[in-house]
Amino acid sequence: VIEDAPAEVAGDSEKASEKESVEGKTEDVAAAEEEAPKQTYIRIARDEDENPVSLDTSVITFEASGEKHKGITVDLVGAVHVGDVAYYEKLNELFETYDVLLYELVAPEGTRVPKGGRKGGGAIGLLQGGMSSLLELEHQLEQVDYTKDNFVHADMSPEEFAKSMKDRGESFWAMFFKAMGQSAAQSGRGGKQQISDADLLMAMFAKDRSLRLKRLIARQFEDMESQMSIFDGPDGSTIITERNKKCFEVLKEHLGKGHKRIGGFYGAGKLADMEKWVAEDVASERTGEKWIAAWDLTAKEKSPETPKEADAPAEEGNQPEADDRDPLAEPAPLKKAG
């Protein structure tokens, strides 16, 4: 027994060594994952002095790599539901380049949003309307031209949405309390995205209220993916998984109709899940990424007026020039986004 003991000790030593090796590899993998850049679909672009320039949404391009869908490209166009007029003008231009543009909207099948939009109903519609007014932004349904022939509704109907939530045992109250819990957790961690009461109060009573509020809310939007993920359980959720599933049912229909350039216009918080669907269903690879400025976050400098200019009547030639910054152009110089 005594003679066998060293062998057992040696065996234990080998196991301990193997365990240390595995643990070391696990730590290396974890470190690599932490170092790997996180895929983002919404960002704050900043200048060299770290000042926020714009809140941007992404346009991710995928190209089919298999023979079945060879030559087809799919763009996932991220959306925020309130934005600058220039943002929606640029999106309308982009949408005209697609053979078919799939869009989200919980509405009866075949719904066509009239030009100039419609006011959203219920609490969410009131919230978005109040938000657009407070931030001096425009609402998506009023600015995007949904009457174009290439627009195709690819989302659940209200009945489908309600049935899915009931079948899954979900409710808006449960979603609300999850969001509150997430907010409390972020507050406890002191994350940079968290808005303090003091920040909000100062912004509300500032002369440049809309700009300050936009900058605060943009910080929250930057972390939209993790905020949306709280609604997902092990089997997904209605608000993300089931709605995205409906989108890809429609996408599959159009893949066989000879369309070569397809777009999908969906909330930026849903694109992480949608990217997995595109990669699997279309056998595609991510080949491009562009950014569109949704919110201008720069402070407008007012040129000092001379007494003569202040007293002068507002003639046509004296009118201030419109802001014609191209939303697709990268802010220059751009140091980082985050």
Topology, please?
Layout: H1 4-35, E1 42-47, E2 52-64, E3 73-79, E4 82-83, H2 85-95, E5 100-103, H3 122-134, E6 138-139, H4 140-143, E7 151-153, H5 158-168, H6 172-189, H7 197-204, H8 209-222, H9 224-229, H10 238-255, E8 261-267, H11 271-281, E9 284-296, H12 307-311, E10 334-337
Parallel strand pairs: 3-8, 5-7, 5-8
Antiparallel strand pairs: 1-2, 1-10, 2-3, 2-9, 4-6
Helix pairs in contact: 5-10, 7-8, 10-11
What does this structure look like?
The chain is of the alpha/beta class and 338 residues long. It has twelve helices and ten strands. The protein has helices at residues 4-35, 85-95, 122-134, 140-143, 158-168, 172-189, 197-204, 209-222, 224-229, 238-255, 271-281, 307-311, and strands at 42-47, 52-64, 73-79, 82-83, 100-103, 138-139, 151-153, 261-267, 284-296, 334-337. The strands form two sheets. Strands 1, 2, 3, 5, 7, 8, 9 and 10 form an eight-stranded mixed beta sheet that branches. Strands 4-6 form a two-stranded antiparallel ribbon. A hairpin with an 8-residue loop joins strand 2 and strand 3. The radius of gyration is 25 Å and the shape is globular. It starts with a helix and ends with a strand. Mean pLDDT is 74; it is low at 1-37, 306-312, 317-327 and 329-333.
Structural class from helices and strands? alpha/beta
Shape category: globular
What is the residue-mean pLDDT, rounded to a whole number?
74
Main beta sheet: 8 strands, mixed
SSE ordering: HEEEEHEHEHEHHHHHHEHEHE
Low-confidence stretches: 1-37, 306-312, 317-327, 329-333
Cα Rg: 25 Å
Number of helices: 12
Q: Quote the distance from N terminus to C terminus.
A: 64 Å
Question: What fraction of residues sit in β-strands?
Answer: 15-25%
Kindly state the percentage of residues in helix. Answer: 40-55%
Total strands: the figure is: 10
